[in-house]
Amino acid sequence: MATAIEVDNLYKAYQLGQYGTQTISGDFQRWWMTKVLRQEDPFLKIGEINDRRIKGESNVVWSLRNINFTVQQGEAFGIIGNNGAGKSTLLKLLSRVTSPTRGSIRMKGRVSSLLEVGTGFHPELSGKENIFLNGVILGMRKKEIHRRLDEIVDFAGVEKYLETPVKRYSSGMYVRLAFAVAAHLDAEILVVDEVLAVGDAEFQKKCLGKMNDISKNEGRTVLFVSHNIQAVSSLTNKAIILDSGELIFKGKTEDGISKYLGLKKTKSVEYRNESGEGIVSVSLKTSEPNNIHRFGQKFSVEIVVNLPQTGFKPAISYQVFDEFENPVFHELFLGTEHNFETNSGDLKIISEINNLRLYPGDYYLKIHYADSFSKIKIDTISDVCHFKVEVMEALRDYYWQPGVAKYVEKGKWKVL
Amino acid sequence: MIQRKEHEHWDICLTPDRRLFDIPLLDVWKYRDLFALLVRRDIVSFYKQTVLGPLWFFIQPLFTTFVYVFVFGNLAGLSTDGLPQFLFYLSGITAWNYFSDCLIKTSTVFRDNAPVFGKVYFPRMVVPLSIVAGNLVRFGVQFLLFAITWIYFYFQEAPIHLTYAVFLFPFLVILMAFLGLGMGLMVTSLTTKYRDLAFLVGFGMQLLMYATTVIYPLSSVPEKYEKWVSLNPMTGIIEAFRYGFLGEGYFSINNLIYVILFTLIILVFGVLIFNKAEKNFIDTI
């Protein structure tokens, strides 16, 4: 397979605050050093990391540093990274909106970028006029658009409103039309940013399907950037990860996602009570690093409680709540049902669930601790150990519509 | 570093250095459909938002002319070279309007189009070119007004007559377009870095108009200033325009050559600066 995109030793610097060196003499000095004497720019200090938490010494930030990768023709290629990792900068460079500070990008064929839905739409013009305007802005010839007009209109489902100014369109129609135009262009390389964030679930699915079609059946190259891990994993097979402007991974999307999830540092999955009484600590073991859990994988909760006296039989339980504060399930441990030495001090128990079949979403725990004889409550902690369930294999994605279920059962079916 | 096969052909190669004279003219040609649609969009969207539509094209020069006739013609009593005052001012305003529209509208290209420019690539030059072409329609309508007035005065037996210089008319229009475009490109490129320049354009154009022979003929300018007023290329263009259509005005081949050279230098310079600014302006605006 031939190479479609080659990114070589790419750097991009941004100036913070005031642009330029702020003075005409500074601007002149820079021009003299770099353009006439062909020397290093005295105002750029290479090696500073793009980290917003640390204030750099110079006011230059490197959004991208030393990026190298290639994309093969017909490949669906993902770009993953946190906010501020440099994804958007890379896309801007790829779509030629701005140019690199160092290094080069080489591409074969036309590039059409979909960084925002409906770029260049004019509210006064009709849907049809806007299809043409948008199409030519994205680099098409008028006759090419003519040829594909029916397909575009069909995909967007706006046939009835083709002669209506787009300012009267609903936002859904607007988005559908814009995506349809971009997806039906004949460019060899399609660069897509988070356009899927808009539109309803059904439309998102349609878009994903169309992009899949573009790369697999039409042999065109798709570059796809998203926060949506599910979308990236179902659409792309190769990916890179950017972190603070540096490329830290390139390879198979699957491996990339595992690595990416490991990078995320969010709320702690641990709870610790410093006083050492009641519930001492709770920790969660999810299948993926930190607090991400892969649907259907092994899941465990470790709880340490302080036993007030010898012979004490505790009752310990935890509830799993979803993001809407609805309890989903409850697990109970009764000290009377287990044989263990009941000296006073810390007791450590673990609850294991082999296939946690929770629906994708955000969850947290609530832990109860009581005396199993007297039923007197000793301690309760709530809103701890936040975790997220994700589906990595997006096969049968119709299955995973939000709100369909809270829990997926795997019973047995029989034909009678 | 990637080992590159040297024989490979790449359609697009993006590097930090674009040579000064590396202007994507071929790209502009590839986007000619965009040019056509932008011209159309500008005209159509102008019609659609207004009650009177293209009538506005008439109203502005007509009222300006009336005011000039009253203020400069009657109150100040400025000379009009013996030409009917109304026709004299209207000819100046028609020509000046086209030049100033071209300049003012192209001078905000980067600022006005930042949202689109920030999202998608196309040769930026298409936009100012489409503005200049779109303004031609407006100029055409205003010229029609001038032509009607001319016919009216002709049959009133006013002292006007066409001269051979009238054949230069299309050429003069191109000169005005290029001059306005070139200066507008410079302004818009510089305003991406130095915002304050934008304020200069509004009142600078007004002052420049008084340094041009819009409201007075060159023949009435005192001799010691005449050289300076003639250095203004718009003076040469408007004088040639009046000479062609009205038979009065200062017209010489030497001055025309000066205007052409001046325009070309401005245009080339404007294109070069614009070309340099378009690469990275989105990082600064």
3D architecture notes:
- With 416 residues, chain A is α/β, with parallel strands linked by helices.
- Chain A is built from 8 helices and 18 strands.
- In chain A, helix 3 (127-137) crosses helix 5 and helix 4 (142-156) crosses helix 5 (171-183).
- Chain B is mostly helical.
- The longest helix of chain B has 32 residues, at 253-284.
- Chains A and B meet through strand 1, strand 4 and helix 3 of A and strand 1, helix 2, helix 6 and helix 12 of B.
- Strand 4 of chain A pairs antiparallel with strand 1 of chain B.
Characteristics:
heterodimer; A: 416 residues; alpha/beta; Rossmann fold; Coagulation Factor XIII, Chain A, domain 1; six-stranded mixed sheet; five-stranded mixed sheet; 8 helices; 18 strands; 33% strand; B: 285 residues; mainly alpha; 12 helices; 69% helix; globular
Q: What's the structural blueprint in terms of helices and strands?
A:
The complex is a heterodimer of chains A (about 425) and B (about 280).
Chain A: E1 3-15, H1 24-36, E2 60-72, E3 76-81, H2 87-94, E4 102-107, E5 111-114, H3 127-137, H4 142-156, H5 171-183, E6 189-192, H6 201-216, E7 221-225, H7 229-235, E8 238-243, E9 246-252, H8 253-263, E10 270-272, E11 279-285, E12 292-294, E13 299-307, E14 314-322, E15 327-334, E16 345-353, E17 361-371, E18 377-390
Parallel strand pairs in A: 3-7, 3-8, 5-6, 6-7, 12-18
Antiparallel strand pairs in A: 1-2, 1-4, 8-9, 10-11, 11-13, 13-16, 14-15, 14-17, 17-18
Helix pairs in contact in A: 3-4, 3-5, 4-5
Chain B: E1 12-14, H1 25-30, H2 32-49, H3 55-75, H4 85-106, H5 109-112, H6 114-117, H7 126-155, H8 169-191, H9 197-210, H10 223-231, H11 233-246, H12 253-284
